[in-house]
Amino acid sequence: MAKAPPKFKEYTLRVKLVDKKVFKPFKFNPQDTVKNACIRVAEATSMLVDSYGLFLPGTEDAAGQWLREDYPLDFYGFEGEEVKRVRESKGQPLDPNKRAVDFIEWRNKFRFVKLNINRENQGILVDDTAKVGTIIDNIIAEHSVQIAIDEESLFANGEDEVEVLSNDMTLREQGYHGECILGLLTKVRGSQKRSDMGLYIRLPIFESYLSRKGSGLNPWKKRWYTLRKNKLTNYKSEKDTKKELGNIMMKTCREIKRTPASLSDVPKKQQHCCFEIVTAARTYKMLAKNTEEKENWITQLELARKMFAEEADIEEYLLQQRKRLEDEIRRKKGDQEKIQREKEEKERIERERKEREERERQEALERRRREEEERKRIQEALDKKRREEEELYMRLALEESELAREFGELEEELKALEGRKSREQDEEMLRLLEEQQREMEEELRRLENEMNELGDEKKSVQDRMNASISIEDEVSRALQSEFDEQLRLAEEELRKAEEEARANKKQKQEEEKQREEAERKQREEAERKQREEAERKQREEAERKQREEAERKQREEAERKQREEAERKQREEAERKQREEAERKQREEAERKQREEAERKQREEAERKQREEAE
Prior knowledge:
Layout: E1 11-17, E2 22-28, H1 34-45, E3 52-56, E4 65-66, H2 81-90, E5 104-108, E6 110-117, E7 120-127, H3 132-142, E8 149-150, H4 151-154, E9 162-164, E10 181-186, E11 197-202, E12 205-213, E13 220-228, E14 231-235, E15 246-249, E16 253-257, E17 274-279, E18 283-287, H5 291-308, H6 311-451, H7 458-614
Parallel strand pairs: 1-5, 6-10, 8-10
Antiparallel strand pairs: 1-2, 3-4, 3-5, 6-7, 9-11, 10-11, 12-13, 12-18, 13-14, 14-15, 16-17, 17-18
Helix pairs in contact: 6-7
């Protein structure tokens, strides 16, 4: 009866550091938990224990799995190298209940997936060890979810294209260990409650006729191909889908070649529609109906390959995707910092612009207030001048009316004077004539009395009569000339009064015109000064703005140069640090290899001595 292998308090397991692509031996206690083992590996590798974990690689019969942190290592049935060496040395068979693995992996727990959020696909990292419910909580906490599709709308286009995931299992436990296209759904339309949220996965679904090149000299065979999740199946025709003629499991697919290496056996007119499916066993050359159908097949087959491929086949791809996403996150973080800096700079510029605009607005208000006061002052002066002119015009109108009244009175007096003078002259003339007539009659009577006596004096009497008549004529002419002279003087005074009134009126009109002309000139002068002042202020404002714009551009250019200089120095500093870090890592790697080589030699030497002692 074979003896049981010796019990070891600790055993040695090889751990593959996936990121560094090296193996390193670690000693573990079988009764210790996976969590403590992870802490030991993280401390030894200077990695974050929250981001990395222990992973059991997959085999042909079983998919890879993460070691649960709350389980003991002994739960997974590992046998350390010491137990294996003892069994081999004694020729004992391996324990069938123990899993025969050469190593376990230390890898990043976060995997890259595409998530449809708010109708947009975004690349994110999710914890591969977390259950779907935890992933949903993280998505809701880290992303602003505004739109989630409901189940009715989700399955409207076909139930085969999507699958609703269980919240109590991880993505890997549900068979999805490659790249996935996920999306949020709600069980109740319009609800955003966490209890109503779920996660669905978009499955690779496609079908159409394809021609496949047979082996040897066999011609192309046209078959109906359907892709459902992990399986590509072909049938004789679209109607005859009961009997399966063959299938390709996508987990065995290594590559989808868009252009085959050789197109010699492909018709020339259809070479652009040809592609290849490369598996571990063989390569299938396929021929689609047209280019569009070819692209659809390649897209869906590539999605299926990445989603269901063997762990070893997608490990490098997932690592590249994870690194690319991490770089993208770092780049976005840097962009966000840059955007934040630009935002702060814009806010500062906007704040300065607002302050400048506020100052300009205050200055404009002050100028407007001063202009308003000046306008009011000018308006008050104009109103005062207008009132004075109106008063003057009223006084002139009163004086003119007074002069007109006086002129009317003068005309009436003149007419009365003319009538009075005419009557007095007539009465005087009549009186004189009557007196002369009486005298003449008395003289005639005396002459008649004396005629007889003084015949001799007839001539003298006649002469005296002639003299009286001449005197009467002279008196009449003198009176007439005096009347004409008085009439001429009255007409002259009237004419002078009219001319004086006309002169006064003309003078008033000229003064009114001069006043209006002066006011017009004053207004034009004031408007001209205002225009010149406004143009001067506009020119000064434009020059000030130009100076400020030039100074702002100079400041921005100086700041841009400073930022570029700072960024250049940062890049140089980062490159220097990267070079130093790379050199340090190279030195550490060389030292580690030397230590491992020394340890290996020591172990070989110890094993050799043990074998010699055993022999």
